[in-house]
Amino acid sequence: MFSDYIKKDSNLIEIEIRCVKATRNGRESYGDSAIGYVQLKRTHGQCTIIAACCPEQSVRSKSYRVQVEIDLTKSEIKSAACHDCIASAGGCKHALAVLGWLHRESEKKSVTEVKAYWQKSKLSRVGNTIKFVEAKSLCSCLTNTLFGANKLRDTKAMNRGRKLEPLVLREVHIKTKMDFKRCGLLLSTDHPVFGASSDGISSTHVLEIKCPLTAKTKLNYINAKGEILEKVKSQIQLQMAFSGRRMGILCVADLDFEKNKNVEIVPLSYDEEHVKCLIEKGLHFGLNLFGLF
């Protein structure tokens, strides 16, 4: 935009100021020191920039006010004028200094473009630290740490879920007359980076059991109308996709299940378009955040 504006502006194409003076006035050593405060306003595809440019002859005098108008839709500089300089009618150096400063700022990378430090390689540390040690005996603490054998203490809600899950499964069997068996991790040959695990599986259905501890946590699974929330729906849809089943069941245990044995059963059909959308979003997320796939 900078060079295009200089070529078209009638005040900046005279022979005596063309190219050489324009380049000199827009140089980094002058513009970065001369530019003071900068204000910016965007309205309906137009951007107005007002900058305070310090006079080169008297730095204690009032700064010159330079105004730049930019058409954002066309990426084009419409005008650049210095309102306080005597030479502004012929295209003064202050307007060129501001334009040069704007050009340099536009070429800088934004904060979001800088790669996160935790993603950067640590190869620079090679040779500065010990790479390995020789152990005469294997410590159980070390092996447990390496293989992820860390203890995870159950919360009150997790403890209730582990305790009630087989009891709920038995009640569902009585009500639906279907035989469910436990299954492990479900994987897909087409998308091996994804996985799903249901609480039960039959020849035609997958089963997901939720045992909320309070009425508030129950709303995390189904709303007041008895509809499955999007997060849980996506969980069951992936279970159906990876298991080859076309029907799913969400079972929500009653808050007083220990006494009344009530289970709310909500059926769900397989939605292929929904699953494709989930997988696409998951791949996009992993690619952008971790650089996978």
UniProtKB/TrEMBL annotation:
Transmembrane segments: none annotated. InterPro entries: PDDEXK-like_dom_sf, Restrct_endonuc-II-like, YqaJ_viral_recombinase. It comes from the Eukaryota. Residues 151-245 form the YqaJ viral recombinase domain. Gene3D superfamilies: 3.90.320.10. This is YqaJ viral recombinase domain-containing protein. The lineage of its organism: Eukaryota, Metazoa, Ecdysozoa, Arthropoda, Crustacea. PANTHER family: RE54151P. GO terms for biological process: DNA repair.
